Amino acid sequence: MRGYFAVGAEGLSKRMNLGTLMRSAHAFGANFFFTVDADQKIRKAPPSDTSKSPGHLPVFTWDSVDTMELPRGCQLVGIELTDDAIDLPSFGHPLQAAYVLGPERGSLSPQMLERCNHIVKIPTRFCVNVAMAGAIVMYDRHRALGRYAERPVTAGGPKTDRPKHVSGGPVMRKGRKVPGT
């Protein structure tokens, strides 16, 4: 899969949700994890993070939306149930993205929503657990940007193989050849 992604949450207060979200981020290949305005008592990976993800991906802890420093070009994608949010199955995932989820009993702050490049919702009848929502979004990204065979129209497995990777020719930038070509 090309690009990179991060997962994080604003205002988390429950250790088990933090650990499960961190573990899922590690499992789906996130490049970093972050919290914004998390409760002081949960700023370390809890026992529910059985993969011990901080040993495998960087964890950033920001005190506020104003102190968040995402990489240049990284698009912030808020996961929130709002009327104007894009349904997740219809969303085109950015190659460089940081997905932010809200707290367990609340929503993303107005400051966070303002900072987001995109707002996406999971089309469910009601809110799901924050750790579950994160896993659903990461699965959707993996499915959308991974190299998988097309789903068949009928039930069952794919009728064709996974597409083979094809390397392109040299990339020209501002009239210069890429070194080594």
Automatic annotation (TrEMBL):
Gene3D superfamilies per UniProt: 3.40.1280.10
Record-linked Pfam families: SpoU_methylase
Region (Disordered): 150-181
InterPro entries on file: Alpha/beta_knot_MTases, rRNA_Methyltransferase, SpoU_MeTrfase, tRNA_m1G_MTases_N
Membrane-crossing residue ranges in chain numbering: none
Example of a GO biological process term: RNA processing
Keyword terms of this UniProt record: Methyltransferase, Transferase
Recorded GO MF terms: RNA binding; RNA methyltransferase activity
Stretches assigned to the tRNA/rRNA methyltransferase SpoU type domain: 7-139
PANTHER family: RRNA METHYLTRANSFERASE 3, RRNA METHYLTRANSFERASE 3, MITOCHONDRIAL
Protein name: tRNA guanosine-2'-O-methyltransferase
Originating organism: Roseibium album
